[in-house]
Amino acid sequence: MIEVQNLTKRYGENAAIRGVSFVARPGQVTGFLGPNGAGKTTTMRILTGFMPPSDGKATVAGYDVFEQSMEVRKRVGYLPENVPLYRDMTARDYLMYIAEIRGVRNRRARADEVLARVGLSSRADSRIRTLSKGMKQRVGLAQALVHNPPVLILDEPTIGLDPIQVLELRDVVRDLGHDHTVLFSTHILSEAEQVCDNVIIINQGEIVAEGSPAALRGQLERGGRIITRVSGDLNKALSVMRAVSGVADAELGMDGIVATPAPGADPRGAIAQALVGAGIGLVELRPLAINLEEIFLELTRQETHEPEPEAITETSDEEMSS
Ligand code: ATP
Question: pTM of the prediction?
Answer without folding.
Answer: 0.76
